[in-house]
Amino acid sequence: METTNKKVSVLNVILILNTLVATGFAGYLWLQSQARNMANAQLEPEVLSPVFLTLKPFTISLPPSEDNLETNKILYVGIVLRVADKEQKNILLDYLPEVRSNVLLLTSKQYINNLKTESGKLELQEQIKAALSRQYDTRRSVQVDEVLFTDFIVR
Question: Can you tell me where the transmembrane regions are (predicted)?
Answer without folding.
Answer: 12-31
